[in-house]
Amino acid sequence: MAIERTLAICKPDAVERGHIGEIIRAIESNQLKIRAMRMVHLTRPMADGFYAVHRDRAFFRELIDFMTRGPSVIMVLEGENAIARWRELMGATDPAKAAEGTLRKRFGASITENAVHGSDGPETARFEIAWFFPGYEVGY
Ligand code: ADP
Ligand code: MG
After folding, report:
1. pLDDT digit of tens for each residue in the chain (140 aa)?
2. Which residues make up the environment of ion ligand 2, defined by Cβ < 5 Å?
């Protein structure tokens, strides 16, 4: 199994409600390492570019309004099979459908305000890490 890196975000709803600590606890207690971290209040161009793949979807505007309404905490996670493992910890996109104990079940309020983000594959992870951490290189 490969060591992977993935991009994780505590979205504005999770930051507003004071869930950064619980989310980081879930990361650290599940053998994922935080390799980079920054708090960013996304501008519209940053959010539009990050979610460009969704720009034709009906929910795009609502998603961008949400993601730009307050700061997010953005992290690079690393570990064995990190991409799938972080998505498993997050749970399904819709908190109502997310498994018991997942972060979206615990902290998500709706399909838009679902507390956390995770890259969905290696190509996406490379794009998303470069989007928020340009020039980022792990130190080994
Ligand atoms: P995921 O974050 O689970 O990878 P997507 O990539 O499909 O999900 O969607 C990106 C984000 O857009 C979701 O996390 C959620 O915040 C929002 N979103 C997705 N689907 C919907 C929807 N049907 N209605 C409203 N918002 C949505
Ligand atoms: Mg996605």
Report:
1. 799 999 999 999 999 999 999 999 999 999 999 999 999 999 999 999 999 999 999 999 999 999 999 999 999 999 999 999 999 999 999 999 999 999 999 999 999 999 999 999 999 999 999 999 998 875 43
2. 120
Supply the residue whose CA is at minimum distance from atom 16 of ligand 1: 112
**In whole angstroms, what is the distance from residue 87 CA to residue 79 CA?**
13
pTM above 0.90, yes or no: yes
Burial label, 129 (beta-carbon count in 10 A; 0-12, 13-18, 19+) = buried
| CA pair distance 140, 132, nearest whole angstrom | 20
Q: Is the dihedral of CA 117, 58, 51, 126 positive or negative?
A: positive
Nearest atom (ligand 1) to Cα of 113: 16
State the residue for tokens 């080994």. Answer: 140
Q: What's the CATH number for 3-132? A: 3.30.70.141
Taking the C-alpha atoms of residue 131 and residue 109, their distance in angstroms, rounded to an integer, is: 27
Residue ranges of the domains in the chain? 3-132
As annotated, the active-site residues are 117
